[in-house]
Amino acid sequence: MEGFKYLGTALAYRNSIQEEIKSRLKSSNACYHSVQILLSTSLLPKNIKIKIHRTIILPGVMYGCETWSLLLRGERRLRVFKNRVLRRIFGPKRDEVIMEWRKLHNEELNVLYFSLNIVRAIKSKMKWTGHVARIGKRRGVYRVLVAKPEGKRALGRQGLDGRIILRWLFRN
């Protein structure tokens, strides 16, 4: 058996991060194609399209990225995917010199979409996870990171508030 998916993460015998990135891009590509009509229509304003991108497509790409060790090849694949989605959102540009439509260049995309580069966002998540791992054991954030809840869940629908979790976090 080559590999399998566990909790949305592709696990393989060699545990290759490149395979995990490929799997994340494949699932996000499917998500992108499901909202492609919305991203290419002129009826929606650009800010709504960007919100769709941030809330639907990007989380699919970045799921589990805290555990990745990115190589240049993986970084490039992530940038290419994000730029392709942004080109669909912002559409082509009319070149004033030759009076023809053309794709936006990467620099123009960065000016129009003034958010963190996807690779920087992933690296900042890795940095935050490392910081939490080094923080003291008495802190609540650390306890959430290494949490192993004990006991059984109650039957029926779970409560909508986080009182049970807060009690578990801050018990002595």
Structural class designation: mainly alpha
Note the main sheet: 2 strands, antiparallel
Proportion in β-strands: 5-15%
Query: How many structural domains in the coordinates?
Result: 1
Q: Count up the helices.
A: 8
- Determine the N-to-C terminus distance: 45 Å
Strand tally is: 4
Q: Mean of residue pLDDT?
A: 78
> In which range does the helix fraction lie?
55-70%
Question: How would you characterize the overall build of this protein?
Answer:
The protein has 172 residues and is mostly helical. It has one domain (3-169). It has eight helices and four strands; from the N terminus they run E-E-H-H-H-H-E-E-H-H-H-H. It has helices spanning 17-34, 36-40, 46-62, 72-90, 106-112, 118-134, 140-145, 163-169, and strands at residues 3-6, 9-12, 93-95, 100-102. The strands form two sheets. It has a two-stranded antiparallel sheet with strand order 1-2. A two-stranded antiparallel sheet has the order 3-4. It is elongated. The N and C termini lie far apart (45 Å). The mean pLDDT is 78.
Short description:
The chain is about 55% helix and about 10% strand.
